[in-house]
Each structure stands twice: as structure tokens, then as C-alpha cells.
Amino acid sequence: MNYQAKLATPIGVLGIRCDDSALIGIDWLPAAEKPQRASTALAQKICDQLLAYFANPDAKFSVPLKPNGTAHQQKVWQAMCNIPRGKTRSYGEVASELKSAAQAVGQACGANPIPIIIPCHRIVGKSSLGGFIHQASGNALDIKRWLLAHEGATPSPLMGEGWGEGESVQPPLPQPLIKLLATRLGGKAAKSLVISRKGRGERR
Questions:
Q1: Domains identified in the chain and CATH numbers
Q2: Which of 29, 45, 149, 160 has a Cα at 20 to 30 A from 35?
Q3: Structure confidence at residue 118 (pLDDT)
Q4: What's the first-to-final CA gap in the chain, in angstroms?
């Protein structure tokens, strides 16, 4: 697979795929994969916006997207983008809105080619986290939990699990990411992001 960047993040190395005009895919790469500098200006912008998100979940994504999928998948992906940061919806809720089926919504979530930016992690099961990136257990769900905790997510009204109750608590910002942000954004900017997260309730 040809990647325009390989970005080290708190949740693994991400492979960034984009064409001349838009982001077309984000893939999780093996843990041993070495980061790769962005080869285009667009890839660099994508990396910078992802790093900003990992430092502050309120950061906004503005890069152009070009996800390839069926008409139904496109509707589900748009519904994901309409879920605010810190909120979740169940597969059944989205299915009801789109006049579809929960299973079909789950399949569209698994087929999402641009996770994180198209936030499929915000769609959960009625009484569980559901799946993530074609997996229903293991490391994939750990990543989903991390993303939801990072965003201060609270459960969907239809959910029975008790995850996400500490809405103001965020996971610690890893030191390697702080150093990377300091390199990319400047020491003062990175420090201000860490202080901002502390103000939002980060535990040290």
C-alpha cells in the first residue's frame, strides 16, 4: 500500500492515503512500522490536524475528504459526522434515522475508510461498545475506548454500559506526543495545549 505519510500517534502508527485533492484513507499499521514524513502538502496538513486533535479533542478537521463507498455507506458516514464530540449514538438510533437496519449501519461503520475524522467510534451498541475497524474485541476496542474517553464521551441514552461516566476526564497526553507537538507547533503552543487539557480535567 502506498502511503503519503505514516504518523505516530497515541493509538498507533496511522497510514495516511490521499490523492492530489483529498484524504481517501487512514489505516492502522503494524506496531513496528516506522513513521514516514509527509510527502505532500496535503498529507502534512492531515498529519498536523490529527496531531492537533490528539492534543485537544475540540480541534476541528477541515481537510477535504473523498471516502469511497455505496450510497448507503455515504449516508451512514454523514450521520457519523453529525454526532458532536462527547456524544454517542447507537447503531439502532442511526438505523432508525436512515430507515435502515442496525446490522447495515454496523457494516457501514466497519467499512469506513477514514476513521477518527469520520468518527465511526461514536456509534456504539445498545448495551456495549459494539465493534471497531472490523473487530469486536481486543486492541480495536481499546482504541475505541481511548477515543471516546479522549472526547469526554457519555453513553447513548439507549446504552447500558457504564463507560464514559467521567465526562470531564481525559486520558493523559503521552510524552512522545508532547515532544512531537513541540517540534511541529513550537514549545509554547504545545505547552498551552497541555494546560488546556488540564483545565478540562486531565488526570496526571
A1: 5-64+172-199 (no CATH), 71-150 (1.10.10.10)
A2: 149
A3: 98
A4: 38
